[in-house]
Amino acid sequence: MKTNIENCLKNALICKKEEKQYYEFSINEFVGHLKELRDRTKNGDFKALNEFFEIYVLNDNKGEKQ
Fold it and tell me: Which residues contact 22 (CB under 8 A, 6 or more apart)?
């Protein structure tokens, strides 16, 4: 499943209390994936970049074919 992390982070700033749990989960997952990306690329595994961007998209990727 792809996640538009840019929208997720923006929405987390303005979310209602009852929506907070969803955004906390998403942000925690994102941070975990960033740490994994850091560790793997530090060890020379640059396939991690492709894997990361298979999961996370940004608003400027909207027009690209998925």
Answer: 15
- The model's pLDDT over 2-35, given as tens digits with 9 standing for 90+, comes to 778 888 888 888 887 777 877 788 888 889 999 9
Cα separation values, 16 from 13, 21, 23, Å:
9, 10, 10
Our count of domains for the chain comes to: 1
CB 27 within 8 A of CB 13: no
Q: Which residues pair with 57 in a beta bridge?
A: 4
Q: Is residue 65 part of a domain?
A: no
Residue 58 token pair: 């940004």
56 DSSP β-pair partners? 3
Q: Residue 14: inside a domain, yes or no?
A: yes
CB 5 within 8 A of CB 57: yes
